[in-house]
Amino acid sequence: MTSALHRTIPGARTAPRLAAPLAALVTATLALAGCTADGGATETAADGANLTVPAPEGLDGMPAPVPPGPEPTGPDEEYDDSPETPFQDVATSPLSTFSADVDTASYSNLRRQVNQGVVPEGVRIEELVNYFDYDYPAPEPGAEHPFSVSTEVAAAPWNPEHQLAMVGVQATEAVPTSEGNNIVFLLDVSGSMDEPNKLPLLAESFALLVEQLDDDDRVSIVTYAGDNQVVADSVPGSEHGVLVDHLRSLRAGGSTGGADGLRTAYELAEKNFVEGGNNRVVLATDGDFNVGPSSPEELTELVEAERESGVYVSVLGFGMYNLKDNTMEAIADHGNGNYAYIDTLAEARKVLVDEFGSTMFVVAKDLKLQVELNPATVGSYRLIGYDNRRLEDEDFADDTKDAGDVGAGHSVTAFYELVPAGTDPDGDADDDDGDLKYTDREVGTSDDFMTVHVRYKAPGAGDPGSSTEVEFPVGADAFTTAPTADFAFASAVAELGLIATGSEYRADASLDAVRERATSALGADPYGLRAEFVDLVAAYRGLA
């Protein structure tokens, strides 16, 4: 039996979010321009910082290209480009283990770079793919586990002799707590933030977040430059005007002592800790720390020491020219958090409004995946992306090993490129793999492609805590000659990633194929993000 979408746990996903009303977008854009909807003047972040801010989005919600300037990325932007992993022989390496990744910064940063007219740097393919929503079935209400797993296998678009397996993990939409939010805004106001697309955009972005809060929530604000300052301490979330006034009064100047700011933010979050609630530091910066501990290694050591407190961290990146992507990603990954890059007010709305629950509320902690490939069906394989998320196979069962945290409504997608069994020379089986499901399988004796093992902890589990493992076999019925629209679109995004990274394994990947397949798989696209991707591919062609 052939199935277009192999759904290991059935269930209907909740209705997609409604698009933000046009009037709200117009109002937000006018606010940045210093006007109200009726034409009157209003104080904006631009007024407070004495900066001029161009509207960061058009009326259709599409981000407007940033006018190119001298050295758009320049020598001061820093990225951690991990080498891609080659194909692995299933006979000798049957396991692939990695940490879940829900970061999306790489896609919006790529969009910014392409719109500037420069070749993208720091491209992480999994973050391109995970930027988009897919129609995976969510777990039923009251399900034993807070996620479902969907799988689909088809011919690899860029290499028809290979197969492409898509593994999708969909978290429940249900927020795991009815307690309030205890949020500390940790805001970089150093001199490097003195740009229109940094501090002013930051202020208006956090104003959008404030509008989502109410009287059950508490907000503190810490700013840092040469030193750090507590601007607000445990203000009720319902006091929108007070909080927005604080945000719009911010001014940039001075050096960047981010480590001291982090310590102060954690102290405030712990002082105001809400048992059973969402306790989180939201760091907004360009990552350009230059006073005190400033390397990714020093900062990750700091946040690793603090994460046992139960305080999570989200990192929002802003700006260009001196963006320190590697530092911000490291803080988020080691601080039980997520990382997004804000290039427009529309992106801020996506992350802080439309995806508020998934950004703020963790439903599965330290989520790891371990895929066991079946040598009877698969000769060799390659996990696409996740190059700095790989784990040792023994780390899967090690509850002291930190991994990604998945928020309410988040989805995680991974692609495996598979070479069918019999295509590669036979390898010698590993005699130490007696516990593996497919150890004694020979070509043609089993039709499973693989088994996906997922291990996670409940959100309230302490460190190291106790994890739960769930197993999802991927049988022959996962294969289809008519892939779903989600498979077609997500694979087009992955193919662009292969091209943008100059992957050794891109084979026949082409921008024409990417655009054609993505165009045919737009679906409902309520926010126009898939259509925007098609336009981005056209813009990328100009760079190529």
UniProtKB/TrEMBL annotation:
- Domain named VWFA is located at 182-360
Q: Which lineage is the organism of this entry classified under, starting from the top rank?
A: Bacteria, Bacillati, Actinomycetota, Actinomycetes, Micrococcales
**Which key words tag this protein in UniProt?**
Signal
**Database matches in SUPFAM superfamilies:** vWA-like
Q: Where are the transmembrane segments?
A: none
UniProt feature, compositional bias: Acidic residues: 74-83
Leader sequence residues = 1-33
| Annotated InterPro entries | CLCR (IPR051266), Uncharacterised_YfbK_N (IPR022156), VWF_A (IPR002035), vWFA_dom_sf (IPR036465), YfbK_C (IPR021908)
Protein's recorded name: von Willebrand factor type A domain-containing protein
Species per Swiss-Prot/TrEMBL record: Promicromonospora vindobonensis
Tell me yes or no: is Signal among this UniProt entry's keywords.
yes
Does Amino-acid biosynthesis count among this protein's keywords?
no
Give the Pro residues compositional bias ranges.
64-73
- Note down the stretches annotated as region Disordered: 43-85
